[in-house]
DNA sequence: CTGAAAGCGCTAACAT
DNA sequence: ATGTTAGCGCTTTCAG
């Protein structure tokens, strides 16, 4: 059977070799205070000599914690694996978590079987808490975990009325700022390429777009909006469609920067059938090569802050029973780069 | 404290409610044979009533196994996160593993601290085995794990002489086939865009390219090869460079399909400064939108087979001490699609 | 077929 | 400051 080397030394053997009691070794291993320096050194020497490594299962069993948290990716997200936002978020969480000494476990949950299996894994005490990314509105995973009394924090709420602790970017505000900026630049015919509208974040960005236009007294006819799915290809396709419908448009707000990159490609391909200076604004800001296009401005989400907030909230829930839920909404920032 | 709900029912409580002994409940939970049907049903009823979920730490401690395996991504790979090959491989492994009832844990290992921490995690018995993806030649992780007696399987060897069990695609052969195909089509001036040459797979593909040319008695001057890094952007850049150097080239072998897609973009941008029908062949085959270009042919790696082989070998090593190491090389397939 | 009992290796509370 | 002890919840003999 796999697992700890069968002849792996135990705490007891270390204690024997160092000539101390088990408790003392435990204290040294856990960096607890109250051990004379000379004793500590003797124990450390014994640990090194034996190549001792604590058995985590025993530690969990006795200490009632796993020292690990899971970051769950659902099927939906899996398709977006390549999105810079996704990769960056994982990195940010990983960085924040590094300080806490907890292991980060990425977990795929694509089917209902896997969903159930994960809940058993979590309820079984293998993780102290769970981070869930961009769930679909109808995903019950947070509730299953919540009922089991497991600390859970969402990245991105599922709906307006989310009754679980979450961290989210100000999607409505960010989109509004972007479109308001375009309007301020004198543009009048502004289209949008949305994300998949069964995702709350995508709907928020669409709402922000509509609000900005409404505030300016402008119209937002349905023909100016095309649904995409955050991918580059959908951006290309949607842009082509938009150009056909409205050759005179002079601004585009895309729900992601990947989509925006696709839109720019289509725009370039269209050549002079469209105005030279169509401005494009995309959500998220990462070093995509395509960003070199001077027409692209982006709405930056503070990924590091998001990662920090997620970890902070999760640790708080792990530390205390959590009688209430908390929400953290992070401000976005418009990164002007081009002529937009 | 996070972890199992404090009032979580135990095996003992289930036994009490069902009016049986602990052992019997354990047998039922683990689907072991030798329990009368009526007894089994009674236990199951008690389990349902109490909402019992086994404590995994206790199970690990007593049963000496974790029922989980880790798939480790290193920093290098992390940068390639968006690569379809990567995502597809994870999916394939996840699928194969589903049958075994083991949990798949993706783990990030970017720094040496994380490297050491992971080894402690693994040695601590939290996973039964480890799968490592596309390591750099100088990564010691497999050796650290090996010394600890932990079952380890690599996806992609680090060098010609890999002394750890691994699964790999026939990179040399695949590249050779691709280039031979181009030569067979009458092309004579064939360039290559390589992957990062500190990765063994990238070097193999370059070697295959060179071998094919050599066998045909053709030259492969250094100016026909440009180093890329598997990304689309590098493909674009490299292709631009190649066009400048050799406006008359009529074929390109790219080390990844993402790179190939970038090359095609550059080719399109170059317009008629290059021959109309430059053929491009990329490694890997996934439904990238860019593949619609008729000039692109690809070398397909059998991702599902790779996933299956990885899981099979790992399970074998977990089951037995493993006195030897095994290598599995999977054949690639040329997927003709265009004019190549 | 089933119950009882002996640990798995560690933490934490309690002595000393 | 350090040794001792009592479990944590489960699997796995070993009896019966």
What is the annotated CATH architecture of the largest domain in chain A?
3-Layer(aba) Sandwich
How much of the sequence lies in strands of chain A comes to: 15-25%
Counted by DSSP, the helix tally of chain A is 13
CATH T-level fold name of the largest domain in chain A: Rossmann fold
End-to-end separation of chain A in angstroms reads 62 Å
Level-1 CATH class name of the largest domain in chain A: Alpha Beta
Query: Could you state the CATH homologous superfamily of the largest domain in chain A?
Result: Response regulator
Structural class of chain A: alpha/beta
Can you walk me through this structure?
- Two copies of one chain form a homodimer.
- Chain A has 340 residues and is α/β, with parallel strands linked by helices.
- Chain A has three domains: 11-52, 434 Repressor (Amino-terminal Domain) (Orthogonal Bundle); 68-169 and 304-332, Response regulator (Rossmann fold); 171-300, Rossmann fold (3-Layer(aba) Sandwich).
- Chain A contains 13 helices and twelve strands.
- A six-stranded parallel sheet of chain A has the order 2-1-3-4-5-11, with helices on both faces. In chain A, strands 7-6-8-9-10-12 form a six-stranded mixed sheet, sandwiched between helices.
- The longest helix of chain A has 17 residues, at 303-319.
- Chains A and B meet through helix 4, helix 6, strand 2, helix 7 and helix 11 of A and helix 4, helix 6, strand 2, helix 7 and helix 11 of B.
- Chain A binds a DNA duplex (16 and 16 nucleotides) through residues 10-12, 15, 20-24, 26-27, 29-30, 34-36, 39, 54-64.
